[in-house]
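Self-study notes.
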Amino acid sequence: MHIKLRLTVLSFFQFYVWGAWLITIATYFFSNNMGTSVQFGAIFSTLAISSLFMPALTGILADKWINAERLYGILHILYGAILLFVPQVKDADSLYYVIFAAMICYMPTISLSNSISYTILNKNNFDVIKVFPPIRVWGTVGFIAAMWTTNLSDSKANANQFIIAGVAALLLGLFSFTLPKCPPQRSISKDASIMEQLGLNAFKLFGNYKMALFFIFSMFLGAALQLTNMYGDTFIDDFKHFPEYADSLVVKYSTIIMSISQISETLFILAIPFFLKRFGIKKVMLFSMIAWVLRFGLFSFGDPAEGLWMIILSCIVYGMAFDFFNISGSLFVETTTDSSIRSSAQGLFMMMTNGVGAYLGSMASGFVIDKYYMLDDGTKDWPGIWLAFAIYAAVIAVLFSVMFKHKHNPAEIEKLQH
């Protein structure tokens, strides 16, 4: 099999084994009356907690002691085995520990898959900048395909979604052992401090007002990202409780409707170079925040019938909300930090968004929903929930536009593009 095709398979299944359950776990959790929104928030927060420490630890292992493709394979086999155990779990407390164990294995494989692809492409004399993006986009396709598999197999409200993901993860783990070897680079100096080895030396950037502000806003946007991953599918699925929507195809195929969000991602990625060059990094990040306001606001007023266009439009603007901040934020770090700590700074950016921010978003949203938006009949006040989230995003956007100062430099963007 050609090396680019093998890496495409790797990218596809890297996100397939996540997409099969990530968007639908809330539907499974609440459909089976496993617990409260606070308990579900805690379960979803395991993604964030794992992101705080596992990528750094596995990065050190791959840098110093074990082949990256072997470590990747071991982690996916463990992840798959844990997911196959999920159908045995019947309560929220036990599910927390099982999903936490699964996330400890899965979250570091995201960065490992990138490292493996970079290493193999470089060894085979490919232009990584040109060749890798078309390979990586198949990861998003894999995520979409998994969502469709779960929905079309009628698995969004039962544990079969974890079996689908678990079997695929086991196969991916075995497949990774067939890849070209990616031995340790031993790029970390033996004399490096623990802080340097864990990439924590970038924390000194908090001493710079502008960078500290950027990381704080990254945290707040990271919290927003979790909300639609957590509740998007179960929000549409809950329309089944209304007689006028109970037999709606939109409700039945809610996961497929939600997959429009991931399809949108692939399109907005292509638009980023134009927007960055025309408007600059700060405005592109601001566009992302405004898109979050629209994402939540449209959900608040949408429904599976006359308001279906709002749900679909919400899914379309998700691509801008997600991609514009993540990519422009990464470029901001790239252009404003010293090369000696640039990798650590990128890690800190991811830690603040996917770690700290995601954790706070998971926990706070569960608490707020349980306390303020549960109705007497046990259902959720979804219009109120999404409107509250929209107001949250709007406040962040206003504060960011006023407090964060960054001058657009077209030459800076040109340099990055070349």
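Second protein, same conventions, sequence then structure:
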Amino acid sequence: MKISKNFGLALLALLCGGIALAEDGSGSTYGAASGLIALAASIAVGLGTFGAASGQGKATAAALEGIARNPNSRADVFTPFILGLAFMEFQAIMGFLIAFLLLNKV
């Protein structure tokens, strides 16, 4: 139940962001396509940050649990953990980059 509630809230936030970016009121020549491009940009940001945040939470929990079970493994766990967090953050940054590239076409 908790997973479906979190998924529903994330989907609602994603859709609300799309509605906010869907129309800018400038009356561009692209018509409905500009609204769909803005919607695609908001989906790219929403899914990129949602995936990165959930991955970072799971990675942090697993790393801390491993260190708690064996404190001597801290040095062995820390470097791959930080590297994994950097890759996950890169995923979120790529979502923002794709959104800016898409919004540049509007």
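Instructor comment on the second fold: Residues 46 and 83 are 23 Å apart (CA to CA).
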